[in-house]
Design a protein that fits this description.
- By secondary structure, the protein is α/β, with parallel strands linked by helices.
- It is 24% helix and 32% strand.
- It contains 4 helices and 13 strands.
- It has helices at 4-12, 35-52, 68-76, 127-137; strands at residues 13-16, 21-24, 27-33, 59-63, 83-90, 92-93, 96-97, 103-105, 115-123, 143-151, 164-168, 174-175, 191-194.
- The strands form 3 sheets. A 6-stranded mixed beta sheet has the order 8-5-4-9-10-11.
- β6 and β7 (96-97) form a beta hairpin.
- The chain is globular and about 50 Å long.
Length: 197
Amino acid sequence: MKYGGFLVILQKISAFSIMGIVKIKDKSFKVSIPEAEIKSRVKAVAEQINKDLAGKNPLFLCVLNGSFIFAADLYREITIPSNISFVKLASYQGTISTGKVQEVIGLNEDISGRTVVIVEDIVDTGRTMRQMIESLGTRNPESVHICALFVKPDKLEEPIDVEYAAFSIPDDFIVGYGLDYDQYGRGLKDVYTIVEK
């Protein structure tokens, strides 16, 4: 049926905007960071990148799926000459995550001698970022920088430098602004934190 998928989505996400609560599948979430604050921080991060990487012609690598909205808003604030591309990380064997990045999928650009900025939604343990930097390093970039919407400093296990972070947050489960719960909730304009019962 033509509208079947749409009806299913409506059943999966029900919003109660008056209370600032959304229900996604079996969990409830409350607003933790409003859209205006997110956009203000994204603009500030972009301004810092514009200043630091002026004259470098950086290539922004957006890691799909979670960072696509962040990358779009960030890139609209970038005023220096640059390019953007989108990649996915292969870390699965069948349906089980190996916990190790096997391959950066979709990187067709020659990054030899380029300044690369990885654009990620969340950096928590840092393992994925470390492995991605190692993978990119085999292609001889001039430098690799990390730009993340969120960093969870209490969970970091790897000594990586997230030079450009919009927010430092506790180890909470969040959705919205590109982040999902079981593939739902990415389109929410604010960021929501899970409500523990």
